[in-house]
Amino acid sequence: MNGVIYFRIMNDGDETDTLLGAETPSAQAAEVHESMADDNGVMSMKPRENIEIPAGGEVEFKPGGLHIMLVDLKQPLAVGDEVTLTLRFEKAGEIVQTVKVREP
After folding, report:
1. What is the CATH number of the domain that holds 64?
2. Total structural domains in the chain?
3. 22-69 pLDDT, tens per residue?
4. Mind giving me the DSSP string for 3-21?
5. Phi then psi for 42, rounded to 5 degrees?
6. Given a cut of 90, is residue 20 above it in pLDDT?
7. pTM for the complete prediction?
8. How far is CA 37 from each of CA 10, 40, 42, 87, rounded to the nearest angstrom?
9. What pLDDT band is residue 80 in, cutting at 50, 70 and 90?
10. The domain containing residue 25 runs over which residues?
11. What one-character DSSP code corresponds to residue 78?
12. Where does residue 101 rank: exposed (0-12), middle (13-18), buried (19+ CB within 10 A)?
């Protein structure tokens, strides 16, 4: 059983920062993935590392693009549940967020 998290990272700083990884106690792993379509429109996913967030810029994690894949959830998630997500950055360090489960 897997899940997915979408969000936006905004970098208000003067330097580019890099997302190095993520983790959550709600799943065995939290992996940064990117969805993409090939020339025939067939969707696939691949793991991504080191997502750069430019100074004064933002990166959006959204359907059909970047996302955090929650691999092997420890229990089913229901709408309204909350998941703790820790994002690990090269410069900003660890940032802990609470993510609310919404309708797909």
Report:
1. 2.60.40.1890
2. 1
3. 999 999 999 999 998 888 889 899 999 899 999 999 999 999 999 999
4. EEE-EEEE--SSS-EEEEE
5. -80, 125
6. yes
7. 0.90
8. 26, 7, 5, 26
9. very high
10. 3-100
11. -
12. middle
